[in-house]
Amino acid sequence: MSRSVKDLRELINISRLSFHGEDGLHESDERDEIVGHKYLFQNGENSSLHPDVKLPTCLIKPAEDIEQPRTSLRNGHFKPLPAINSSKTSKECVINKTDSMEPNLVYQKCNCILQYIDGSVVSSWLHRSNECVQWLSKWVSTKEFFVRFAKFWLTEMDRQKQGELVEMEVGIILDEIAFSVQDGLRCKKVTQQDVMLFFLLIVWEYPSKICGPQSSMFVLNTLATLASGRKDRYRTLLSNVKFATKSPEQIHWILSVRAFALISIVTALVKFYASLIGHGLPNHDTDDSSEWHSKSIEDFAFDAVRLGCLNVLVYLVEEQNLETSGLKNKEQLSLLFCAVTCGQADIVRYILK
Questions:
Q1: pLDDT tens-digit profile of 182-220?
Q2: Which of 91, 127, 178, 295 pairs with 118 at a CA distance of 20 to 30 A?
Q3: Which regions of the chain carry the CATH code 1.25.40?
């Protein structure tokens, strides 16, 4: 399947923000309080940031027109600014303060942030997010990379180290948001704590889900959602924000910040692993002539069987709702048959139970 960055420039015409609660990350979110209008899509179909879908044209500039004032540690072309509020103590202080603040005050501070956001910076975020999603989609569909990463993340990567990597990336994202509202910071209408507060409201999964006991599941679920083309889950993930606004422009900003943050976090973690194994490093190849075929959750299951990764297969069943019964690959071979022929006795027992 041919992919191109040009094909990815029209997503966030999602004009609905839903109110998050205790639901699972990927469960359908049909709550009573909805902000905005219907989902609006360029082609009249439901859309997502998956490479088959597009980001909003109103927010996207051609890459050559985007001035990159700074960058994160992910591409290394520019020297990053010092991260604001990057220490664990300062973040915890803001988080604790947020918990005790009146909701109206929180929204007031975040609305102030939105008044100062630089649209050209948001455009560059979306362009970079497009490139990241394209690369993630290709990477997880190459060989058995998804299964190998999942095994590493579930069983081999120390939980504390996982949290440290996430915290590092969050610090970079806070830097990016601060740069986008530098006029507000300069005139002291916006504070660095306001930036952190805004991030906590938009990416409400931080820190409890992204850095907590279930962080491994959150990262893998998000990666699978971003890269495997499950559009309903993608929409739910990117639009699951609690924010009271009817301004289309503010909706664009909010959804753009959320998409950029989640995509950046997952991309940084995957690139860390790719660098660790010395294979599959990104080259941001956007050549229209390059051909590749995206893998589905079912394809990942057959990869897990071939590699003998029972824990990854269990993850796919329990978290991605994979049905192993009667599952067949493109050669019409069942998952059970592949497990038997590969000599994976534990997986055979798991499928049969």
A1: 999 999 999 999 999 999 999 999 999 998 888 999 999
A2: 91
A3: 297-352
